[in-house]
Amino acid sequence: MSFEDKTILITGGTRGIGLAIAEKFLEANAKKVYITGTRTLGLQNGNSKYFFIKSNFLDSESLNSLLNEINSLEIDILINNAGINKIDKFQNVSSEDFMKIQHVNLFAPFEICKAIIPNMKKKGWGRIVNISSIFGKITKEYRAPYSASKFALDGMTAAMAIELAEYGILANCVAPGFVDTELTHKILDQNGIADLVSKVPLKRLAKPNEIAELVLWLASSKNTYLTAQNIAIDGGFTRV
Name one GO biological process term (predicted). Predict the structure, then answer.
């Protein structure tokens, strides 16, 4: 897959899955890769194809600044990867925390898609991949706000894909399972990770680059007919 003539925007691209996706696009000779984040942690210095845009989706002014900048970027491929979570009992979740999660995980992708779609329509080609989660296909206790955002993201993506199909724009969700990232190790201790791994048929966490490989295929010209889907990449976890 080559992306020599494609300009890509990846939100939340400074670490973890987002950074792995950015690196894969660079390996595939992307024309330009724009990355958003609240900080530059994880970015490779000195790579001329990385264009970092500092953006905080919890700040309306910051998000609006990004939306205004998007108009001049002529994005061909959008990866909405930025997301936040807070694990807590349903009755303990504050309205403020619930809305913060919806704002970052759902409202920001909604606004960014709206800003980018006109250029894709003009070109008659575009790819949108929204990073969801297995908790947007199944759920468990203490995940109500997060699951609400990710189930909604899937519904929004599917409806959007149906509307955009006639313009040559394909839109899908990718739903990662448990991934070997800094954040996973920050949330869980070794016993917690071992417990998760025991429940995954492949008996391991996913690597970020495995998620990135699927995202690249969906975003490429090789994908000619797959749209409006929410694809779980979870080592079989959601099927057992």
Answer: monocarboxylic acid metabolic process
